[in-house]
Write a structure and sequence with these properties.
It is a single chain. The chain is mainly alpha-helical. Helix 2 packs across helix 3. The radius of gyration is 14 Å and the shape is elongated.
């Protein structure tokens, strides 16, 4: 996995953004980006743990062909 970061954009309902911000204000994450990165990792770990393992243990940057 390369250490290069990329920007992604997603639209969410205002109510979900407000809920996310309230959660972050509890001290759970540094900011919205930190929360979203964590949420993506948790989702992949839960639903497709083999992809997450491959990201760190494979030689294909986590991409399966």
């Amino acid at each position: 996995m390369s250490g290069k970061e990329v920007r992604i954009t997603a639209r969410v309902p205002a109510s979900l953004k407000e809920l996310m911000w309230k959660y972050i204000q509890r001290g759970t994450h540094l900011n919205e980006s930190d929360f979203i990165r964590d949420a993506i990792r948790e989702k992949i770990l839960r639903d497709a743990p083999e992809l997450f393992r491959d990201l760190f243990h494979g030689d294909n940057d986590g991409v399966q062909s």
